[in-house]
Amino acid sequence: MSITILRNGIYFDGLGNKGVKKDVVIKDNIIAEVSDMALPIDGAREIDVTGKWVCPGFLDIHAHYDAELEVMPALDESVRHGVTTVIIGNCSLSAAVGKDEDIVDLFCRVENIPAKALSDWLIGNIKWTSPKEYYAHLDTVPVGPNIASFIGHSNIRMAAMGVERSFTEKKANKEEILKMQDLVEEALQEGYLGVSIDMLPFHRWAGVYNKKFTGVSVPSQQAAKSEYYKLADVLRKYNRVLQITPNAIDKTSFVTIMNLSRGGVFKKSIRTTIVAALDLKSNERIYKLLKLLGFLGNDILGAKMRFQTLAEPFKNFGDGPITPLFEEFPSMIKAISATGEERKQIFKDKTFRKQFEKEWNHKATSVFPRALKEMWVVKSPDASHIGKNFIQIAQEANKEAVGHFMDLLAEYDTQIRWWCDTSNHREKVRLELLGYKHCMPGFNDSGAHNVNMAFHDGPLQFLKTALRYPEEMSIEKAIYRSTKEPADFLGIDAGDISVGKRADVVVIDPSRIEAEINSDPIEDYHPAFGGGYRLVKRSGKVVQHVFINGNEAYTNNGVLKFHEDLGKKKIFGQLLRSNLGKS
What is the mean pLDDT of residues 469-495? Predict the structure, then answer.
């Protein structure tokens, strides 16, 4: 029997109770005792955590690790920040159903993983053919954190209709709808959390293998609304969860989401998580509309909606034109899909430049603020650009700003790298959303847009903000909102370290949070990325210990160390199945 005693820590159970000084005893994989002074136990390992917080491991409620966990199952970039449970299968994309080449095309542009690396990971390695077989496979993977999954609508649409029809036919026929419903029902019977649907046009097919649909929005976005309702009916039957990415440029999509969630006079409402509640720079009033929608939908109309919320500024990087932020410009879709040399010619084309400038200057609200003064250069063949925004660079060149930006893209393409905070830039507004009852913290998007952003440390960012504003957000509430609350809403056994519960435990040094948690990612050249890199976060020694299933996966108390068996032996994370029963 393995026994660990955490002595003299400030214990937070995850249920929202205030932190109290306690000893915590972990025996094998459970919390065996929480007491004022635990008696010594022969053979036990004792760790002095005086002044440290002992709390449940955090949830990443929106991750895109579906492909990565097949080759790097430790998922250590989440574990190091105290995340012990991740939710995959989001935004209509999953690996549960589909041919390997099609899954590469679904993931590659959204995850921004080099096509060769992603192909090496998946081509020839997908042996499962159904949702049931996929979960049987996941049960064998030695994952670091616990995992749970939605099944992706894009995948089941392709499986039911074929790739061609999934893109070209808005309305599925009766037989195809029934096949989709059967796939969803099989998944729910196996314990999937629910279905993920995507309405956001900026998520596009990569065209690595099937070039016919290169740059086209993924299949879930091609569906008629009636198809969403048919799938929601299956979720309602099993009392499961709907995850939706709304169309940010079509406000009527929120009406559809509200109606899907509330059901109707003779239908029960279904739990619905929505990506995402953000404080947009492009429209600083939009977050109030989201709050109003939550109030109207839930409190007045009886829906069960939760807007997923990011706990830090939404900092995005771009390599020239290669960024998800430019996917919302119709003129840029072809450019992003093109080769570097093709793009240089595109950016010189007068017709293209005129169209791009028109799109750049349109007045409608968008995710991207479309402000060159907000875009800061961090890498360029011309060293004088570094540290300046594109307005400053244009002024120094005595050029019109948007035109000069296009000139730079024509000359340097991806050699010029820049960043922009698109949203969540106001700390007090961010905290308002994190505390709002119709929002749900934990949207980290880990594994997505790998060279454009990194939010693996979202829960720690939440704690940092809570420490700054204790009168508005207590630490126990911040921990509850990052652990037990989302676990209960999603229907998984996690987020609670009361006696008898699975020992997913994080030890945090609160004295380090302010100084050691920041928003700047670093480039990680992991060999699995085939010479490419991904952006990751670091949080110093804030997280001292991480226990998953009772085993210490990570320690950073003196020496940073991942357990040698993390990602190799199945003694840490588990596949968590839904605990929500049929309605």
Answer: 98
pLDDT band at 366 (very low <50, low <70, confident <90, very high): confident
CA-closest candidate to residue 219, choices 61, 93, 75: 93
**Helix, strand and coil percent figures for the chain, each rounded to 5:** 40, 20, 40
Torsion of CA 181, 186, 187, 191, to 10 degrees: 130
CA–CA dist 217, 213 (Å, integer): 8
pTM, two decimal places: 0.95
Query: Is the predicted pLDDT of residue 583 greater than 60, yes or no?
Result: no
Strand order in the sheet with 315-319: 315-319, 417-421, 376-379
Sheet strands (E) in 335-401: 376-379
Domain boundaries, the chain: 57-315+423-493, 318-421
Q: Which residues pair with 194 in a beta bridge?
A: 241
Dump pLDDT digits (tens) for 445-456.
999 999 999 999
Out of 3.20.20.140, 3.40.1190.20, 1.10.357.10, 3.90.79.10, which CATH number does the structure's domain 57-315+423-493 have?
3.20.20.140
3-class secondary-structure state, position 336: helix
CA angle at 569 for the pair 193 and 522, rounded to the nearest 5°: 75
Q: How many CB atoms lie within 10 A of CB 37?
A: 10
Q: Which of 492, 478, 467 is nearest to 441 (CA)?
A: 478
Residue that is written with structure tokens 């998922």 in the block: 75
**Closest among 286, 290, 279 to 426, alpha carbons compared:** 279
Cβ(442)–Cβ(62) below 8 Å: yes
Here the tokens at position 62 are: 């929106």
Q: Kindly state the tokens that stand for 100.
A: 């390997």
Average confidence score pLDDT of the chain: 94
**Which segments of 203-334 are extended strands (E)?**
241-245, 271-277, 304-309, 315-319
pLDDT given at position 525: 93
> Model confidence at 582, in pLDDT bands (50, 70, 90)?
low
pLDDT in tens, 2-29: 999 999 999 999 999 999 999 999 999 9
Structure-block tokens of residue 489: 């809403």
